[in-house]
Structures are given as C-alpha cells and as structure tokens.
Design goal:
8 strands, four-stranded mixed β-sheet, alpha/beta
Amino acid sequence: MRLVGEDGQQIGIRTLQEALNLARTAGRDLVEVAENANPPVCRIMDYGKFKYETAQRAKESRKKASNVSVKEMKYRPKIGKGDFDTKTRRVEKFLGEGNKVKVTIMFRGREVQHPELGKKILDDVAATVEHVGKVEFQPRQDGRNMVMVLAPDKQAQARHRRRLEAEAALAGGETLQAGSAD
C-alpha cells in the first residue's frame, strides 16, 4: 500500500505490517483514504481528531446555511381595506425576516368566475411590498385558488432602508432648525 505521513509527505509503498508499525510508533492511527487506488492509499493520522474537525466544519456550514421557509397568507376577493392592510403588513414582515411568502386568493362559489378580482388583489400586494420583496412566481389559477409567490429582495430592502434613513435625517434636520428658531 502507498503510505502518507501525518504532515502529508509521501512515505512510499509499504506492506500492511510496516505501515501499522510506523503508525503505532507515532502513536497514531492508520486510515485507508483511497481503497480503489492501485495500490490502496493509507494515511497515518489521529482519527479521533480528524472526525472531530470534520464534525465541526459540518456544524459551521449548517450554521451559515440560511433556512428559508415559505409562509402563506390567504386573502379573499371581497376583502376589506383594513384586513388587506393588516395582512399585507404581515407579508411585509415575513419578507423582511427573509422568508418567502405564498399569497393565496381563495374563491368561493361564483367568485371563481371573476379571476380578475383576485389578480388585482395580488398585484396590489406585490406593489405594496415591492420595497422588500419581488414576485418569484406570477399569479396563476390553481383550482378554486389563485397563487403567487413572493421572495425577499435584498437590494430592494437596502434601497428602502437608505431612503428611510435619508428621510429620517431630513426630518431630523427640519426639527432641529424649527427648534433653534424658538
């Protein structure tokens, strides 16, 4: 078998017994790293430490991975202004948290004959939250429901945040000027 040392240097081709003896004298483990190679490749290493470091790297990569969940908000074609505003604020909050939002219009009875009402509501929702999200899937009829998916838009959120900060700074400057005039 081909033997590789702890620091990655090539030791050479050795018999199994020689490789085991070298690993024991170093106080390390002999680990087969490429069994399909000709000859098989083994490495002298601390296997416990190797497993621990691998687990830590996997844990770190899972921590960095973003968990995007899909939230759902349901509307009706005859929704009132107050309910529309409340639900749309919730959609805005979900998008601000980095979640995707599935917006559903539920039709009952003969309402399904007027899909343009549902389309108008979905367009209004998309227009209202365009500063934090973008339409990922355009509205489409799905049986008695019309569905649209919104996704968070990081660039739009950053632009909106900068605009709000500028407005706040402007409003703060006007307040200071008005206060100093007294």
